[in-house]
Structure formats: structure tokens, C-alpha cells
Known about the structure:
35% of the residues lie in helices and 20% in strands. With 345 residues, it is of the alpha+beta class.
Amino acid sequence: MLHVRSIWNGAISFGLVSIPIKVVNATESHSISFRQIHTEDGGRIRYRKVCELDDHEVTQAEIGKGYEDADGTIIPITDEDLAHLPLPTAKTIEIVAFVPADRIDPLHMDSAYYLAAGGAPAAKPYTLLREALKRSQKVAIAKFALRGRERLGMLRVVGDAIAMHGLLWPDEVREPEGVAPDTRVTVNDKELDLADALMDTLGEVDLSELHDEYREALEEVVAAKAAGEAPPEAPEPAAGGRVLDLMAALESSVRAAKESRGEAPAEAKGEVRRLPQRKAAKASPKQAGGKKSTATSKKTAAKKTAASAKKSTAKTTQGTKKTAAKKTAAKKTTAKKTASRKRAS
């Protein structure tokens, strides 16, 4: 914690016990930030702080705070004014109650901070509060002032440290009016069973394995552009369709979730299933095969007989035609001989 700059120094007020602490940010942003540039020449676009009365640019040291009244009048507020606010929480995290952790709706949670012990004298009371929170399995509700306003906080144990979550005031959380669907629908037990099966198939997840894929893709684009290469192309989006059958969609989701986890569908796991017995009225495979063979033999024999008959008929017809042709030729020869004899006489 020594290398992290504290954003607030004060003490935790735990009854009559005071625990000096330093507040440091518990989270950090890894988002890639961009600069505004002039698209024509790539020049940086900067915002300059200019006083609208004398039209001169001013430095950060010359800038203070002011409250704008309803009529537009600016009322200057100095850091000294803020330091003397009539609040007991100006430099103190005042614990007001201890409640079960499930009493805090996550919707109220805001920024997260770590509370570091402020030196050796704070080690004993710091450890006492931490162990008391552990044993009671409760969280502490506290009030504190940070960045110009009083806030609500929740103290809980994280590892060997005490963390504080900023909480929104109750009037800062909107009611969910008009958010839920106003159409009356009924969900049956089978649909709930499939939803439960999908939840069980997806299972749990180790949050440490999740990562920001958008930031990684953005880094690839920046690296490619810096190297003068074409940025990677986006993959084709999955074809989305309109869900017409909720049951079919749930079943498909369960099947896809199982396949993604390497689980084969039930029919693909080599299960041995007994085939249903055939009715007695139906013939066995062998009997059916025998009947089929007999029928085939009869058809083959019939075909052969028909073919033989056709061949015999063709031969008879052909023989008749040959005989008639011979008789015709003999008649023609006799006629020629008779004609020759008449010419000779």
C-alpha cells in the first residue's frame, strides 16, 4: 500500500476508539484513452481555461471554487471554508451501525476504497475492528466527508484489510417504475426446468479468468496502425434470429452450453439402449427374408419364361418369313424360265 497515493487522511471513529487511517483507491481503470486531434493535419485539440471577464488564459493555481446562485451570482468558496465545515465527519469515518451484509442492496454501492492503518499506533485498533467484523459476519455502516460532500459508506473485511464501499444515499437510487414488462405473461414449470438446466450447465466462473476483450482488440488495432499495417477485420457477427419458440431456444442454449464445455449430447455418449420388441403378428427378419427370396425367385422365373416365349415366337416368325421368301423366289425363277422358252420357240 506504500506505493499508492492516499486520497484522504483521517480516522475511523469506533465508539470511543479512534483508528488513524489513510484512504486509497481500491480500483483502477485500464481503459484506453484517446486524444482529440484535427483530422486534416493530426494536430492536438486542447482546451484552454480562459476567464470570460478579461478573456485571458489562467493557470490551475489561479482557479478556485464558486457556487452559482439562482440569479447567476457566483459565491466564492475557498478550501479553508470547506476545511471548517460544521461536520463531525469532515476528517472522520464515523461508524453508526453494524448490519448483516445481505441487508445492503448492491444497487447502492459506489466507489471502493482500501483503508490503510495510519502508522504503528493504529495497528492494534485496526486489527480489533477487522476481527470484530469477521466474527460477527456483519458490515459497518459509516458516514464520511470526501471531495466536498458527506457520503455514506460500508466497511467490510477483504483478506487482511478493511475495505470501504461508498454507498449512495437512499434518495439517490431511483425506483424501478416502468422498467418491468407491463404485459401479463405466464411461465410454466417446464420452461423453468429448462432455465434451471441452462444455469446448471453454465455453472460458476472464476472472475480472475475474465478479461476485457474490447480493450485487447483495441490494442491490436492501435499496434497495427502504428506499424503501418491494416487493422484486423472484425469477425462476421453471428446470424441472429427472432426467437419464436422459447422452449426451443432454451433447449438449444442448453445443448450449446454443454458442447462448449466439452460435454457430448446424451445420444453421442455410446449409451446401450434396448430396442423395442416387435409384435408377434409381424414376421421375424428371417421369415420376411425368406418370403422376399421366394417372391423374387417367382418373379425371376416368370421373367425367364416370358423371355423364352418371346424368343420362340420371334424364331417362328422369322422361319415363316424365310419360307415365304424362298417360295416367292422359286416362283420368280419358274416364270423367268417359262418366258425364255416362249421366246426361243
